[in-house]
Amino acid sequence: MGSTPAARTILFLTAARKRVKSLSMKSMTFIRGRFTPALLVSGVLFIAGCGNQDAELATQRQKELETVRAELEQAKTSLVAQETELARLRKDNLEVLKLRNEVRQLRDDKQQLAKQAQTAQVQAQQAQTQVQVIQSQVQQTAQALAAQQQALAAQSRGQATPEQQSAMACINNLRLLDGAMQQWALENRKDASAVPTAKEVAAYLKNGIPKCPAGGAYTLNSVGTVPTCSIPGHALPQ
Fold first, then answer.
1. I need a surface site. Which of 139, 160, 226, 233 has the fewest CB within 10 A?
2. What tens digit of pLDDT does each residue of 52-102 get?
3. Mean pLDDT across 151-173
4. Inter-CA distances, 130 with 16, 31, 67, 101, 181, Å
5. CB-based contacts of 82: which residues, under 8 Å, 6+ apart?
6. What's the angle, vertex CA 195, arms to CA 190 and CA 201, rounded to 5?
7. At 228, phi and psi to the nearest 5?
8. What gap in Å lies between CA 147 and CA 171, rounded to an integer?
9. Contact 232/214 with Cβ under 8 angstroms?
């Protein structure tokens, strides 16, 4: 029986079982000797410590999250304040532009008034000059009239010829024309260089433009120059 293959297999299996059992007993003894209660407690504490670290980490993350949320709310508040300030600055900018336009308009109005004042001053000086010219012409006319009246009185004592009578009548017409021209210049604020038309002068004469008795033609010169007749001798004194 011991030499058969079956017998040898049985003997091998029995020996293997004994070997495994012996190794198992030795392993248990080794584990019991190595893993003492203190080591087991340390392992438990280590696991508990890991749990505490996770809790602390979660708490820290929660605090960081709350901090980030607070910073976000602060940033939102700051953004709203900046937008409000920007809107105020835009409004102030519009007000500044409006004030600048008003200042520019006032400056333009001031310059325009200054120009108008200068123009009025020039016109006043021109009017004063015209008045002086007219006064001088009136004085000259009065002197000429006095001289003509004296000549007429002297002629009345004698006998005036028809030519002399025509000349005196023509000179009287020229005097009327000159007076009408001076009145036109004064009412229309014209200077001594202005030349009126016959229609403008006729408006100041009762019977319109007179005619020379001897058939002469009248010429209306500038206000500063007396009118003239085309016939020699028919002239106002200068």
1. 139
2. 677 788 888 888 888 888 888 888 888 899 999 999 899 988 989 888 899
3. 76
4. 156, 141, 93, 43, 12
5. none
6. 90
7. -130, 165
8. 12
9. no
Question: Hey, what are 65's tokens?
Answer: 């999250």
Amino acid identity, position 118? Q
Query: Are the C-beta atoms of 188 and 207 separated by less than 8 Å?
Result: no
Q: E strands within the chain?
A: 218-219, 228-229
- Coil, strand, or helix at residue 230? coil
Residue 218: phi and psi, rounded to 5, are: -90, 145
Question: What is the C-alpha separation between 68 and 74, in angstroms, rounded?
Answer: 10
The per-residue b/e assignment along 163-180, b for 16 or more CB within 10 angstroms, e otherwise, is: eeebbbebbebbbbbbbb
Q: What is the pTM of this model?
A: 0.39
Beta-carbon count within 10 A of 19 CB = 10
Which tokens sit at 69? Answer: 């949320």
What is the DSSP-derived secondary structure letter of residue 229? E
